[in-house]
UniProtKB/TrEMBL annotation, chain A:
Belongs to the uracil-DNA glycosylase (UDG) superfamily. Type 4 (UDGa) family. Keywords: 4Fe-4S, DNA damage, DNA repair, Hydrolase, Iron, Iron-sulfur, Metal-binding. SUPFAM superfamilies: Uracil-DNA glycosylase-like. Residues 321-481 form the Uracil-DNA glycosylase-like domain. It comes from Brevundimonas intermedia. The keyword DNA repair applies. It comes from the Bacteria. This is Type-4 uracil-DNA glycosylase. SMART domains: UDG (SM00986), UreE_C (SM00987).
From TrEMBL, chain B:
This is Radical SAM protein. Its cofactor is [4Fe-4S] cluster. CDD domains: Radical_SAM. Keywords: Iron, Iron-sulfur, Metal-binding, S-adenosyl-L-methionine. The keyword S-adenosyl-L-methionine applies. It comes from the Bacteria. PANTHER family: ENDONUCLEASE/EXONUCLEASE/PHOSPHATASE FAMILY DOMAIN-CONTAINING PROTEIN 1 (PTHR21180), TYPE II SECRETION SYSTEM PROTEIN K (PTHR21180:SF9). It comes from Brevundimonas intermedia.
Length: 488, 412
């Protein structure tokens, strides 16, 4: 049996050096063990105790065989596992180190018994560290140097040194100490240092703010939703003795069912006396009449926001009405607002809008002279994760929304109406046009104005081929130029 | 009015804030107090500093600035017509409480909301002032979650985004008609517009690849919202559709579902009963399926009964029982997307299986070490030494998977 002596329970470097020597010496896992200096050693009479500083027996080996490497993942895992409070952790790690010689990918085989065991212990350590960040409670003290903060904490694993830097980063401007049975950590606003184990009586017994904290804890608890098991799964009873608020738990639990029953059984009371004086205006009492014929663009705007003619309002942010001068001679009608238009509440501000703007500019049309609107005022889409995918509105939705488009046309009285794409064509012409055949041609409309059809700018965005895109863009610009001619 | 002492105020205004389920402090930018004049840090993962007996985490000091309110929302304890005791904090009182709690490591930061007093703008201004004081006067680098008053001026929302990690506006009820009836001073359109503004703000704050000067931060922890379950008649499918629409539209980090809870002094137009906690739990599970498991709201809806999720089994199991033709799934070959659909396999377990099967062909025992419980998985998977045979199609499979220890019947 070969025994290595480590300087402390968390002496990772010591374990690492000793384990390396042992593996080089060919000490099988069953024949090697690790003990901590000062801890009670139960050993055989003829044991060879070796500190890692002793000259290793392996010096006789050729140099090549003295070198071996292990994956970084193993070293990281071992650093964590060594903080676990189990006695056999050193042996488990050595067994893994030993096995790595023949199974270099072992650490990735997380279904392996030893690897799974080590991962489980690392998880417990990580959890203990996380809970330390959560459950340390500082109390304020005054000493010769002024204000300081002291906490007493009992972590289930030896995570003090691992976790102390967290408190340093968080409370950089405070002078604090965390005392535990394993050791203590001190931050003096400049340097983090570690000291010997402490006892509970070395920490202050109270802090006046704790009463406020307990008041908060009791008030934020909802007695109608008692779930004691859920609480205990996250805040194990072992932590309770050092949490000031935990003292309240028994009485909160005991009183909760009574409090809930009283709430459920009490009849609804009369409104309080100051109610009528303070209450704000009922927004829904004066909803606009969406059946009334709109007299102004402002009426259209109000009507669209309140519109329930089709269900599209439900998942949209807002209705998006047209935008442009009331005296515009050209009206451009798109299909429907897209994602960006829906958020901003303005037509053609998204990617398709940018294509349109560029094409308008090339055709020599000033967008600020044009009334730009859509056939359908709400964004029809389907959610997919964090995005919304455009869906083409159906004939029923187009028909329902013609109420608003017709109102806009009646109020603006444009000379020319340009429909972008088939849906807009349907809304303007009353029939679905064959866009590619009919594009760029003057079509007589019922109200005496001239209609034109062209492609929707988003069509360009969907074309993957650069040449096809350029051609489609030329077509759009040509149709805009044809539109321009019709106005003069 | 007599001045209330600070502890009494804290008790009133914490009690008034507790019906908001959100207490998350995760997902914001990483920062600490090194080199600063104050205290505070955020390191990605949120920290729950305590748990109350309702199983909820206490991560933030969650309070209202005031519970005076000019709105009369039937489901809310602070509605104008309620007889609840009222209180109001000064800005400095909230700032002091936050710092005092933070120094003692009780909290990750502040979650501040408020009843609407005077005007929406005035109220929002006060909320922003608290956050501004914490950040600028005290160099506080902990977490701040501010509730948006949706009717407030967009400029105030913009300021709130500069100081807060997270912003939230509650959509409150799944049905717009119910909101109009139960919260007559609120308008769902206004709430959605506020959410739009936050999404656009968050997107604008993301630096482009070639930006040399980074745009100012805006709510790095994103936004969330809350739906009350069981106060209007909306079935689960409608609630999930609404959530899917909110996730897609506004890039929400979370939708919280809050079982309508009886409140002291409650309104007569609402159901007075214990909160439907199991329903709330199933909704959260379904929400998880949508966000992390690749399920769509309609898919989950297929396995519901009249639009309601089965309360006895989780929604993934309900879905799988309906789609048995797709099972069993070979753990050694199936794509990740399909493994995620196996009842009993979570995201972590799935990733472990995918990682380890490059090195080993898995037996049932191996799967057992990679997951919580292999028993639940048996009907749905095949492994090197396991095939479920007729188990997958067993008529009584649901009963077999849900049997609990027999209970002694009452004699009376």
């Amino acid at each position: 049996m070969r025994t290595a002596v480590l300087t402390s329970e968390t002496d990772f470097e010591g374990w690492r050096a000793a384990a390396r020597e042992m593996r080089l010496a060919g000490v099988e896992p069953a024949a090697g063990r690790f003990v901590v200096e000062g801890a009670a050693v139960q050993g055989g009479l003829f044991e060879e105790a070796a500190k890692f500083s002793d000259p290793p027996a392996t010096l006789r080996c050729p140099r090549k065989e003295r070198e071996f490497s292990v994956p970084k993942a193993f070293v990281d895992l071992a650093r964590e596992v060594i903080l676990h409070r189990s006695a056999d952790r050193f042996d488990l790690l050595y067994r893994l180190l030993w096995r790595l010689r023949d199974e270099p990918d072992l650490i990735k085989v997380i279904s392996d018994r030893d690897v799974a065991d080590a991962l489980e212990r690392a998880k417990n350590v990580s959890r203990a560290s996380h809970k330390m960040k959560a459950f340390v409670r500082f109390r304020q003290v005054e000493d010769a140097q002024g204000e300081a903060w002291v906490a007493w904490f009992e972590p289930p694993h030896r995570v003090l040194e691992k976790t102390a830097p967290f408190f340093q980063r968080r409370f950089t401007t405070m002078r604090w100490s965390i005392l535990t049975p394993d050791g203590s950590a001190h931050w003096d606003r400049e340097r983090l240092s570690f000291g010997p184990p402490a006892t509970r009586d070395m920490a202050p017994a109270e802090d006046e703010i704790e009463e406020f904290w307990k008041t908060y804890y009791a008030s934020t608890f909802n007695p109608a939703r008692l779930k004691v098991k859920t609480m205990q799964a996250e805040m194990a009873k072992g932590y309770w003795k050092n949490l000031p608020e935990a003292a309240l738990i028994p009485e909160l639990v005991a009183a909760s069912s009574v409090r809930t029953d009283v709430m459920v059984a009490t009849p609804a009371p009369e409104p309080n006396v100051r109610f009528a004086r303070v209450v704000a205006r009922d927004l829904h009492a004066a909803r606009p009449d969406v059946e009334a014929v709109a007299d102004s663009l402002a009426d259209v705007e109000r009507g669209v926001q309140a519109c329930r003619r089709c269900p599209l309002y439900r998942d949209a942010t807002q209705g998006v009405c047209g935008e442009g001068p009331k005296t515009a001679r050209l009206m451009i009608v798109g299909e429907q607002p897209g994602d960006q238009e829906d958020l901003a509440g303005r037509p053609f501000v998204g990617p398709a809008g940018q294509v349109l703007d560029a094409a308008l500019e090339e055709a020599g049309i000033d967008r600020s002279d044009v009334y730009v609107t859509n056939a359908v005022k709400h964004f029809k889409h389907e959610p997919q994760g964090k995005r919304r995918l455009h869906k083409t509105p159906n004939a029923g939705e187009v028909q329902a929304c013609r109420w608003w488009l017709d109102a806009e046309r009646r109020l603006i009285q444009p000379k020319v109406v340009l429909a972008l794409g088939a849906t807009a064509g349907l809304a303007v012409l009353g029939r679905k046009p064959a866009v590619m055949q009919e594009r760029g041609r003057a079509l007589a409309l019922d109200d005496g104005s001239v209609g034109l059809v062209t492609v929707h700018p988003s069509y360009l965005l969907r074309l993957p081929d650069v040449a096809a895109k350029a051609e489609a863009r030329r077509g759009l610009v040509d149709d805009l130029i044809a539109t321009q001619r019709l106005m003069s | 009015m007599a001045r209330l002492d600070l502890r009494k105020k804290l008790s009133i205004l914490a009690d008034a804030a507790k019906y908001d389920a959100s207490c998350s402090s995760s997902g914001t930018s990483k920062r600490d107090s090194v080199g600063g004049k104050g205290i505070g840090s955020t390191e990605g993962m949120g920290i729950c500093h305590a748990y109350t007996p309702d199983g909820r985490c206490v991560s933030l000091l969650k309070i209202l600035l005031t519970n005076f309110c000019i709105y009369d929302c039937a489901y809310c304890i602070n509605r104008a017509s309620s007889n609840v005791e009222r209180a109001r904090f000064d800005v400095d009182e909230v700032v002091d409480l936050t710092l005092n709690f933070y120094r003692r490591n009780y909290i990750e930061g502040l979650f501040l909301s408020s009843g609407v007093i005077r005007t929406s703008d005035y109220t929002m201004e006060q909320l922003v002032l608290v956050a501004k004081t914490l950040r600028e006067v005290h160099d506080f680098r902990g977490y701040i979650h501010l509730k948006l008053i949706p009717e407030a001026d967009p400029k105030l929302v913009e300021m709130a985004g500069l100081y807060a990690d997270r912003l939230s506006a509650n959509i409150e009820l799944p049905r717009d008609e119910a909101l109009a009836r139960l919260a007559p001073q609120k308008d769902v359109g206004v709430i959605k517009k506020a959410m739009s503004q936050v999404r656009l703000g968050v997107e604008a704050a993301k630096p482009g690849k070639r930006d040399k000067i980074k745009p100012p931060k805006f709510a790095p922890g994103g936004q969330s919202t809350q739906l009350i379950v069981g106060a209007d008649g909306a079935p689960d499918t409608e609630i999930l559709d609404r959530s899917a629409s909110l996730y897609g539209g506004y890039g929400l980090r979370r939708v919280y579902y809050s079982a309508f809870s009886p409140i002291p002094d409650s309104s007569s137009i609402l159901p007075l009963s214990k909160p439907p906690l199991m329903r709330e739990h199933r909704l959260y599970q379904a929400d998880w399926l949508m966000r992390f498991y690749g399920f769509s709201a309609p898919e989950i809806g297929e396995a519901t009964d009249g639009g309601m999720l089965d309360l006895a089994i989780d929604p993934k199991l309900a879905w799988a029982l309906n789609k048995r033709a797709q099972f069993p799934v070979d753990v050694n070959r199936a794509p990740r997307e399909m493994l995620l659909r196996v009842p009993g396999l979570g995201v972590k377990a799935t990733d472990r299986i995918v990682a380890v099967r490059r090195y080993r062909t898995l037996r049932l025992e191996d799967v057992g070490r990679l997951t919580r419980s292999v028993e639940k998985l048996r009907p749905w998977i095949t492994a090197l030494d396991w095939t479920p045979g007729g188990l997958t199609d067993a008529v009584d499979l649901k009963a077999r998977l849900t049997t609990r220890a027999p209970e002694q019947l009452s004699l009376f």
